[in-house]
Amino acid sequence: MRLRETLSDFWNEFKTKKVGLVGVLLLTLTVVVAVMAPVIAPMDLKRWKDPTYWENNPKSVPPVWVPYLFGKTPVPQIVISDFDVKARKLGGFPLIVATKEFNYTYDDFPNQVRIYFNLSHGGAGAFLQVTLYRPDGQSVTIFTDTIYPSTGNETYGGWFEKNVDCNREKKVRIAVATWLQKNGLNVTADDVIVPVALFSDMKSLKQGNPKTLKGVYKIEFKSATQGKKLELERLEFLMSATAYGLLGTDDVGRDLFKGLVWGTPIALMIGVLTSVISVVVGLFYGVTSGYIGGFTDEVMMRVVDILMAMPKLPILLMLAIVYKPTVFTIVFLLAIFGWMGISRVSRSMALQLRELAFVEAARSIGASRWRIIGVHIVPNIVPYTVAALALGIPDAILTEASLSFLGLGDPSLPTWGSILHDAEQGGALGSGMWWWFIPPGLAIAIVSMAFVFIGYAIDEIVNPRLRRR
Amino acid sequence: MSANDVVVKVNNLKKWFPLKRGIKDILARKPRKYVRAVDGVSFEIKKGEIFSLAGESGCGKTTTGRTILRLIEPTDGEIYFLGKRVDTMERDEIRGFLRKKAQMIFQDPYESLSPRMSIEDIIAEPLEVHGLISSKKEKREIVSKYLEEVGLTPPEEFVFRYPHELSGGQRQRVAIARALVLEPEFIVADEPVSMLDMSIRASILNLMLDLRDKRGISYLFITHDLAVAKYISDKLAIMYLGKIVEMGDAVEVIDNPLHPYTKALIAAIPVPDPRHKIGEIPIKGEVPSAIDVPKGCRFHPRCPYKFEPCDKEEPPLVEVEPGHFVACHLYARR
User: Fold this and answer.
1) Do residues A215 and A279 share a domain?
2) Domains in chain B, ordered, with CATH?
3) How confident is the model at residue B278 (pLDDT cuts 50, 70, 90)?
4) Least packed by Cβ within 10 Å: which of A258, A417, A421, B301?
C-alpha cells in the first residue's frame, strides 16, 4: 500500500485513542526539553561529575521557590569581589590590606562561606589573615595562613591561589570555635556551623535558637611578605544562597535542574537507540530463521531460547563491573538482551508470509533468499514491530536507570539513574532532600509512560484483535 | 513430431511429503509416514500445447506443477525441460535457466501480488532479479509494452497503481504480464481463473490462448473445472490421488470418457438450466487419505464397476485408443 495513505489512515485511527494522544503529548514535551537542553540549561556536560565545576554553588539547598512557600525570602548568592585594596610598606616590606563593607539583612544564614584569593608574592612567601568585623563590634579572624618561600625550581613560582571552603576548612572551624568559646559558648571545632556562627546574633546563639545579626559587616584581607613584591591578583568573598535554581542542588552543589534537563536527551537516546537496534536485529534474525526454516530455524530458535533464559540484570551487572561502561556499551549490552521477543514474533509472521503466493511468485521468478526476505517479507512485518519498538524504549530506559542507580552506568553523564544513585549515596531520603530524588524519578516515569501509552495505542491499531469494544 | 518439440517431459514423478513423527513413534520405531501427493506421474507437453491437469482438490495436480518448476523438491522421477534434466539441477543453474524460461501464474490474484509494490515494480521484478534492466526509462518502456500486451491500457494509468486498487481480473492480467516479461517458453498456470468472476474468466482464458498463438508458449494448465479445461486445453489428464487415471486429447477425454472416475466428474458438471437435474453421481464416499493409499487401484473403494483384480493389482496407464490413455482394469483386460 502506498506509504502516505497508510500513514494518514494510521494517524486518523490513532487520533481516536485517548491514551495514545496523552502519550504523544508527554513525548512531545520530553522531546522539546531534550532539544532545548543547551538553551534552558547551559553547562559543560563533560564536567558534570567534576566537583570543582560546582564548588561555588550552594550545597544541598532546595529550589528557590521553596522558601517562598513558607513565607521566607531566600538568601541569594552574594559574591564580594570589588575590594578596596591598599598597598603599603611596613618597615620596608610590602603590605596589602583589602577591605569591603556589606550589608547583611536576611533572615536566614548563608549556605556556605568561601574565600578565594590569588596572591602574587614573588616567591618570597607571605603571611595572610582574613577577618570579619561584625555590626556588634566583635571581630573574628576567620583564616590565617603562611605561604612558604618557593624553592625556586618551579617556573611559575611566586604566586599562591586558594579557594577556602569555610564550612569544612579545619583552620577556619578552629578559629571560629575558639572565638565562640571566648564568648562563653561550649562548642568544639567539630560541631561548629561556620556560616551560622559568623552571622548570628550572639544572644540568640547562646539560647540555641540562632537569628541573624543584621547590619553592616566588614571583611578584611591582610597580607605581608618579607620579599619585594606583593600583589593581589584576585580576591572574592562568597556567601552562597540558601536556595538555588529551579530544582535545588545536591551535596556537591550540582544544579539538579540542569541534571534533569540533560538527562532527557540521554534517556531518549539510550531508549530509542537500544530499541531500534533490538527491533532491527530481532526482525531480521526472526525472518531469516522463519523463512529458511528446517534445521537452521531450529538452531537459530534454540539460540533465542538460551538468551531468553539468561537472567538479564545479573549478567549486565557483572559486565558493567568488569568493563567500565560508556553509554554506547550500555546501549549495546541492552540491545543484546532485547531482541529475542521481536525475533520470535517476526519468525512466526515469516512462517505465515512465506506460504503466501506472492512469496512463492518471487521464488518462481528466481529471486534470491535475501531479496525475498528484504523486499517481500520484512516490509510486511515492519508495521507490526512499530508497537514493539515503542514498548521497547521504556524498557531500555528503566534498565539503564537501574544500572545507573546501582552505580554501574556511564560514570561521566548526568543520567537520571545516576542522579538517583547520588541521592541514595548522599542520604537524600533521610535528610528530606526531596528535590534530589523526586524529579528524576518522575522524569523516568513520565518518559516511560509516554512510550508505553503510544505503544499500546499502536498495538491496538495494528493488532485489531486487542481492540477493546 | 520430433523430440525437439517436447518442452516438458515428466517421467514417473513422485512427491512424498514426510509426516512429522512424535518422539513416541520414533521410540517405537514406527516407519515414517508420507503424504503421497504425487505418486508416479508421466506426461509430456509439446511446444505451443496447452496441457491440462484436472481433478478434485488434493489430488496432487498443483504439487505436480510446482515440482516441475522445482518450487518443491521432487522425491523421485525425472523432469526434462527443453531437453535438460531439471530434477537434479543445482540451485545456480535453476536460477539461470529454469527461472528464466519457465514461469508460473497463481490461483489467487489477491495473494500473488506483493501488496506493497507498485504494478510497475511487480512486473519489472523478474527483470531486476536477473539484472536485465539498466535504467528507469528502459524499465518503464518494457513494463508499458507488457501491460499493453495483457490488455491493461493505457499503461501509464496502471504503472503507479498498487494491487489493491485493481479488480481481480486486472490483477490476474498483471500476474500474466509478470510471467511474460522474461519471455518464457513454458508457463504453469495454477487454476488462474477459479477465483475470478464468470464474466471475466473467458477474457483471461482468451488472453492466454492469444499468447500461446503469438509466442508459442506451452502451458501446464491446472484446473478442477472440466468446462474450462475443455475450452482451453489441447491435452487433458485427469488425476486421482496422485496418479493420472486418464489422459488424451481434451475433447476426446470429455466427450468420450473411459475411466469411471472421469465419467463421474463429467456427470457432476452443473448445467445452467433449471430443468436439468444432476443425475445421481455413481461414485460414493470421499477421497481416501493420501497417507493410506488403497491397495490395488486407488479408485476401487468408490468405483461402481469394481471387480476381482481391482483391490489387488494397480492398473497401468495403457493406450486404449490412439492417444487416449486410461488406467483401469476394465480396459486393460481387452
Assistant:
1) no
2) 3-116+162-332 (3.40.50.300)
3) low
4) B301
Tell me the pTM. 0.78
Which residues have a Cβ under 8 Å from the Cβ of A242 and sit 6 or more positions away?
Answer: A58, A61, A67, A74, A75, A108, A109, A110, A111
Domain holding A234, by residue range, is 75-239
Q: Give B89-134 pLDDT, tens digit per residue.
A: 998 889 889 999 999 999 988 889 988 888 999 999 999 999 988 8
Phi then psi dihedrals of residue B114, to 5 deg: -60, 125
Torsion of CA A316, A322, A323, A327, to 10 degrees: 30
Buried b / exposed e across A416-438, counting CB within 10 Å, b at 16+?
bbbbbbbbbebebeeeebebbbe
**Rounded to a whole number, what is the distance in Å from the CA of B115 to chain A's nearest CA?**
6
Count of Cβ atoms closer than 10 Å to residue A400 Cβ: 30
- Please check whether residues A334 and A227 belong to one and the same domain: no
How many angstroms separate the CA of residue A293 from the nearest CA in chain B? Answer: 14
For the record, the C-alpha cell of B47 comes out as 511446444
Angle, in degrees to the nearest 10, between helices B168-180 and B198-215: 20
* CATH number, domain with residue A20: 1.10.3720.10
Task: For residues A267 and A388, state if they share a domain.
Answer: yes
The C-alpha cell 624553592 sits at A151
Mutate to test the interface with B, among A5, A295, A356, A358 (most CBs of B within 10 A): A358
Name the interface residues of B facing A (CB cutoff 8 Å).
66, 69, 71, 94-95, 99-100, 103-104, 106-108, 111-117, 125-126, 129-130, 162, 164, 175, 178, 182
A61 assigned to some structural domain: no
Task: Write the ipTM.
Answer: 0.86
State how far the Cα of A350 lies from the Cα of A373, in Å rounded to an integer: 9
Structure confidence at residue A152 (pLDDT): 58
Distance from CA of B237 to the nearest CA of A (A): 24
Looking at the predicted structure, is the pLDDT value of residue B21 above 50? yes
What residue has cell string 515503542? A390
Is the separation of the CB atoms in B256 and B323 below 8 Å? no
Of B104, B116, B130, which has the smallest distance from its Cβ to A364's Cβ?
A: B104
Domain boundary residue among A200, A215, A239?
A: A239
Residues A313 and A435 in one domain: yes
For helices A256-292 and A18-40, what crossing angle results, to 10°?
130
In a domain, A66, yes or no: no
pLDDT given for residue B1 in this prediction: 42
pLDDT (0 to 100) of residue A393:
93
- A37: phi > 0 → left, psi -120 to 50 → alpha, else beta; which? alpha
